[in-house]
Amino acid sequence: MGLDVSGDPVLSLNGVCRDFGQVRVLHSVDFALHAGAVHALIGENGAGKSTCMKILGGYLSASDGAVRHNGQDTVFASAQQAESDGVVMIHQEFNLAEQLSVEQNIFLGRELRKGVFLDHAQMRKQTQDLLDRLETRVDPAARVEDISVSDKQMVEIAKALSRNARVLIMDEPTAVLTNREAAVLFRQIERLRADGVAILYTSHKLDEIARLADMITVLRDGRVVAHGAGAEFDEDRMARDMVGRDLTNLYPDHDGPVGQEPVLEVENLTVPGLVEGLSFNLAPGEVLGFAGLVGSGRTEAMEGLMGLRAATGTIRRNGQPVTIRRMSDATQVGLGYLTEDRKGRGLILSQGMRPNLTLLALRKFVRRLIDRRAEEAALDTAITEFDIRAPHRDVAVGNLSGGNQQKLLLAKTMLNAPEIVIIDEPTRGIDIGTKQQIYAFIRTLAEQGRAVIVISSEMAEVIGLADRVVVMRQGRKAGELTRAEISEDSIVRLAMGLDGKDYAA
Amino acid sequence: MTEQTKPRRPRLDLQVLGPIIALAVLIVIGALMNENFLGYGNITNVLSRSAFIGIIAVGMTFVITAGGLDLSVGSMAAFIAGCMILAMNALVPMMGTGWSTIFAGMAIALALGLVAGLANGLLITRARIEAFIVTLGTMGIFRSLVTWLADGGTISLDFTLRGVYRPMYYGGILGVSWPIIVFAVVAIAGEIAMRHTSFGRHCAAIGSNEQVARYSAIPVDRVRAWTYVLLGILVGIATIMYVPRLGSASSSTGVLWELEAIAAVIIGGTMLKGGFGRVWGTVVGVLILGLIDNLLNLTDLVSPYLNGAIQGVIIILAVVLQRQKKAER
Ligand SMILES: Nc1ncnc2c1ncn2[C@@H]1O[C@H](COP(=O)(O)OP(=O)(O)OP(=O)(O)O)[C@@H](O)[C@H]1O
Ligand SMILES: [Mg+2]
């Protein structure tokens, strides 16, 4: 830090406003990016961070105000033009052609040629170099469709790096990365900063911001509410400025009673190739955490339990054996599952909030025909109860900010009134204020006597929420920790297999 | 593409208005060019002829909305017509030449439609073969079966039976012919099913994102198979209305019906890639295609041989209009 950011900005927003239809989402926003500095843009879900970034990157136009590039008012006619002027953006959502290979994606639109033919050897070599630099062991010839989510993100980053950007805009690049991958990314960011690249960065992980940012701009409801050097902000101040109030006690107390009789017993759950002999119990009033590294089989186990994947094993509900072959069997016995992939599996992005909300519990709304009035009423309730903030009622769900999509998905799952709620990565890409709301909500569920399973890759979340933790490793249960035993250290030891003990049945 | 029902906001949407405007323009042009155009006889003629495609297109709307496609409907209609006629002829010695034979033929037509649709549906959902390939295959199969049944010629209905059956196409109640009545009933039922039942909602969900549908506890395969069964039954119904018109079936029966039905669906604003369907739009689409055909026959401005070309232009225009809605920048 302590960099000189007093020089002329490379790229800036000056009094920029943006409307979507009747709704103004940016109100006269100003901030500037300087060469060799990391500028962090933070704010709640829906504050307008992505919108600012898209305007800078040429993907959206400003409704009012100016974008200034190297001191001159600029209107990027398209993202291609911005890119050819050295402004490159990594999107919050993936922008990869799923059917093409990693290499083809990286060179998409600017393929290297030798005469009229493509220069495959050269492209292969450059791709390999980029991936090596990112310490990513993905095959350049692999189809993007077949690689993991975090590898996709690394490919996005490689693609941006290959563009030799002078300005690099990154919209939540670490939301789907593991800690190790994030660390690699940070090293690349530091290298680019040293090379004089101007970087705009956003993330809901405030420790990353504290670590990276030379400058910070805080947005709230589309307005800049705070601005200053990175050193002036600690995480508490960031959170306070973002949310507009003091945030104490991120995690709720847990002192509600936990029942004795298990409501769910899972024995020897096996999903071929992914999960081996997983057994656990769940009591009413309990929050059971599932920890483990990415790829340890937690999601697959729950999908197996819910009938979304072929699985074997014994499942008892209130002591009675039940057979679950498809998801409707699971919902029938009071199980609910909230997927980690809210855009791909959770919500229909092209539809509005009402059909999304009622899709799972549609049966409840059918009196011969679908009772639209009842659906609207349910949407009203959901909007209040889950504090869903939408620009307007008929907005396509794809245009909601990430946090509000998550709340809608939660509302959708809860509409079916499950007694056992399985929540996979409850707060991925969610702002800190909303996190607090979701944590409080999870605790309320437990206090109402329901049982909750929380899968999370965020250690703090598992520790803060769970009454008991199951740690998984390579598809098996590596161990189980009770309230008193739960600590970062004990979880990591089990997740990495440092204990040598194996509890798997 | 936002949701179809807006509680308020009377926004003038080109996607909604497009097909209706096109239909209105056609009617005005027609009325100006030929005074008989809006006459009772001509309207009845157009509607009755459109009814077969219309009934099939309503079913096709569900298939396409759920992300599928069915190329086999034209051949299926020919095959069902052939079997139905052969069966009725065979039943004459036993059941006579009355309505009982015809009802038996109708039952056979419906059953065949159901089975054919089920075959398509199961091959697509159980054997996991692309809908395009499956129905391309069954299209060839049905077409060649009917040619074989007819031995390369024509299968004709028993002469007396034909006379009894004829009113099914030419007759009606209160001056409205039976095909029009059946088409109207099917269209209204389809519109209600699409907008106000779980089945319609599920079709749209599956067509938008199959994974989301699966994770919402929707029996994806079953719903998808049902769309083909429904379409098969509707093809059966269309055939029941069609056979009394000519009283025969041959290898050229129902040729290109599949394309007309798909075209009507797309013109009506249903998305070809699935996820959003509009039955009333399909009805408008059917009427547009029927009117163009009729106009070309009534007037000598353009040769009727160019009918196909004009239909093609309209289909392409309809898809261009669908895409107009690209997000503002
Ligand atoms: N195409 C669109 N049409 C209508 N409203 C939109 C559109 N895109 C964004 N919005 C709205 O603009 C606001 C700002 O959205 P934006 O995506 O910039 O938020 P964000 O700060 O990036 O949030 P998150 O942290 O969840 O990613 C939100 O209220 C969102 O619903
Ligand atoms: Mg965003």
UniProtKB/TrEMBL annotation, chain A:
Q: Which Gene Ontology CC terms are recorded? A: plasma membrane
- SMART domains, alphabetically? AAA
- One Pfam family from the UniProt entry? ABC_tran
Task: Tell me which residues make up the ABC transporter domain.
Answer: 11-246, 258-499
Lipid bilayer topology: Peripheral membrane protein
* Cell membrane recorded as keyword: yes
UniProt keyword annotation of Transmembrane helix present = no
Q: Which UniProt keywords apply?
A: ATP-binding, Cell membrane, Membrane, Nucleotide-binding, Repeat, Sugar transport, Translocase, Transport
**What is the annotated localization of this protein?**
Cell membrane
Q: One GO MF term, please?
A: ATP hydrolysis activity
Annotated InterPro entries: AAA+_ATPase (IPR003593), ABC_carbohydrate_import_ATPase (IPR050107), ABC_transporter-like_ATP-bd (IPR003439), ABC_transporter-like_CS (IPR017871), P-loop_NTPase (IPR027417)
Name the UniProt record assigns to this protein: Ribose transport system ATP-binding protein
Automatic annotation (TrEMBL), chain B:
The record's subcellular locations are: Cell membrane
* Membrane-traversing stretches: 12-31, 51-69, 76-96, 102-124, 131-149, 169-189, 225-243, 255-272, 279-296, 302-321
One GO MF term, please? transmembrane transporter activity
Highest taxon of source: Bacteria
Keywords assigned? Cell membrane, Membrane, Transmembrane, Transmembrane helix
Which one Pfam family would you cite for this protein? BPD_transp_2
What CDD domains does the annotation carry?
TM_PBP1_transp_AraH_like
Q: How does it sit in the membrane?
A: Multi-pass membrane protein
Known InterPro entries for this protein? ABC_transp_permease (IPR001851)
One GO term describing the cellular component = plasma membrane
Predominant subcellular localization, coarse grouping:
membrane
Q: What is this protein called?
A: Ribose transport system permease protein
